[in-house]
Amino acid sequence: MTTADVTVRGAGIFGLSVAWACLRRGARVKVIDPNGVAAGASGGIVGALAPHTPDNWYDKKEFQRDSLLMAESYWADVAQVSGHDPGYGRVGRLQPIMNERGLKLAHDRVEGAKTHWLGQAEWQVVKASDLGHWAPYSPMGLIARDTLSARIHPRRATHALAAAIQEKGGVFSTEGEPEGVEVWATGLAGLEQLTHELGKEIGVGTKGQAALLAYNNPTAPQIYASDVYIVPHNDGTVAVGSTNEKTYDRPTETDEKLDELLERVFGVLPQLKTAKILSRWAGVRPRAIGRRPLLGAHPTREKTYIANGGFKIGFGVAPKMGDAMADLILDGQNTIPTDFRVESIL
Ligand SMILES: Cc1cc2nc3c(=O)[nH]c(=O)nc-3n(C[C@H](O)[C@H](O)[C@H](O)COP(=O)(O)OP(=O)(O)OC[C@H]3O[C@@H](n4cnc5c(N)ncnc54)[C@H](O)[C@@H]3O)c2cc1C
Known about the structure:
The structure is a single chain. This protein has 7 helices and 16 strands. It is α/β, with parallel strands linked by helices. The protein has 3 domains: about 5-85 and about 150-205 and about 290-345, FAD/NAD(P)-binding domain, CATH 3.50.50; about 95-145, no CATH class; about 205-285, D-Amino Acid Oxidase, Chain A, domain 2, CATH 3.30.9. α2 packs across α7 (about 315-330). The chain is globular, with a radius of gyration of 20 Å. The two termini are about 35 Å apart. The model has no long low-confidence stretch (mean pLDDT about 95). Flavin-adenine dinucleotide binds near residues 34 and 185.
């Protein structure tokens, strides 16, 4: 007798989000990962859940918006079932407006949000002087603030989701035979495997480095400025990241590129300069060609599915991605945006 309807390979945020959605719909789920929970990119520390801008609208933005709007109740449910705090908070985001062009774009986005964010979030232009000491420097004294952005603690959230899955009867192991349908959510290893199997490039990794600082400002908005994210968590820390390295020798080691990033962070918010650096972290993002999630039926294997390509927004799109995959796997309904489908890159 089988004990699982769905076997998920990969215990990162993608695999676990698919497992959770299937479990919530009554399927029996097994998760296999030889390296354990959050061993890959999902073991990170940054956790910006940041929307694409609400102008120049297209379906990738819509998918991400829906996912970000789902996130609050999704993570509240995970916290309630698991008893663990994923560190979710809808704190918003600040971005300094640097010049007249930036101001025009910001006004376009104010209008775009009115049209596309369903009255559930806003893009605003506010005075830096109204934001106190947490305002990033803007030569115009103006900041774009959106109220859709949130933050999460990636590593804690992934472990909380794993605990919730176990609590609801999902089974975890580091090895074993698949049962039922299979979902390959194996991140970079999966993209490399597909590339090898199909004889064409399906995706690559881009390395990112980040740091965690001791600084307590739990309800402050995240900041995106000078190409860095500054993300206050609810545990007395602020995460900063990330580098974007297309070539790398040591995927999980930090180096002087992180020191350069920290200098940029201190330029944006000088008060962080005296904060103790608690940890430095590096990982590799799974980036499918086209920089979009890669979801759907496996191109060559029966009863097998792929959930990959989270790249820089894996945590942001995870709730909706899990649902779309469960629609396909359990109900045969393909609700995945056309551009995200595996067949779109074949
Ligand atoms: C520095 C950095 C900062 C980031 N910041 C953000 C951010 O602010 N916001 C955001 O949304 N995203 C961010 N991301 C991206 C996010 O972390 C990824 O999109 C996401 O973690 C990808 O999840 P995944 O489950 O696809 O892959 P992974 O987390 O890498 O999981 C893949 C899993 O598959 C397992 N595996 C490999 N081979 C096998 C096999 N044969 N069988 C079974 N299991 C296998 C691995 O052990 C691993 O656990 C960041 C990433 C990095 C590196």
